[in-house]
Records
---
Amino acid sequence: MANKTVKATKAQVESRITELMGLLVRGASYSDILRYCSEMGAAATNPDAKDHAKQSTFYGVELTSRQIDTYIQRARTAFSKLSESDRKEAIGLAHARLELLFQSTMRIQDFKAALAVEKSRIELLGLNAPTKIAPTNPAGDKPYAELTDEERTSRVMAIVNQARARGAGSATPDGDDDDSDSDDLEA
């Protein structure tokens, strides 16, 4: 007669997922988790099994790597759900604190502090319009201006001519002898 495996209850599954979440939080790698589950599964047949092994939800349970993969995936999904709800909760809590702080500053007529609190609240909720950044030249002192096709062609040709002159070891197009390799190309 074939060995019949017993299906885990929902409570056991949730306990195992929680246990794996603890391992993941402590930095366990995939191979660490496989080894841990294997050791806990084999611990039931070991009379010298330590008490902490007997506390494991994996104690005496032999799982396939595919089953462990499923548990790991469910643990990671649980982390995602926690982070979503934690983020919403954290934003809600921060918003409530800012509201209370705003009311307090208005009550004592500290308008400068109230304005700072309101700016923080607006930033928290993302109510600001996107900030536009005007492109400038590399020095930052002049607005960026598009080059015309003629200007662009002229600059490219000047660079090409300088490169050719350097390659031939002759004078550059501006008439200077090109004895130095450290000259920068001008854009």
---
Amino acid sequence: MSKYLVILMPMIFHLQGCNSAKAESPIPSMEYEVIHESDYNEYADTTNKSTIVLSSQYEYQNELLKRTSEASKTINFETETVLLIDMGTQNSGGYSMSTELIDKGDYINANITYVFPGDSCSTDQAITNPFKFIKVNSKQYIIVTEELTYSSC
């Protein structure tokens, strides 16, 4: 009887250990390329806050020309997409944004964090219009999640 008890005890601990261990794999962030970025609209035109998925060279060049005279990049819209993130017109400097793209299998989640200057921040007294054009190496559907934070200068 003692032989069976000795053999069963390690098995019980082993099985219990497997059930209580919750191994979670890290969520893989997708690589992307920021192809255009600025804090200012070159033409001093105002744009509204927007996030736009651009799926053709025409759409991409049209939106780019509203913001800058930079030459457009060559994008293969058969396999790639461009994500435009525009914070819209702001009354001062100190505004920025960060982006993380996560491949969820059936779609891509674009997590955008907008950073506003805190009350104690010293900022440029100029009209700004931060924007980014991001090349995504995928044609999957893009879902956007937005978050707002304040910097603590």
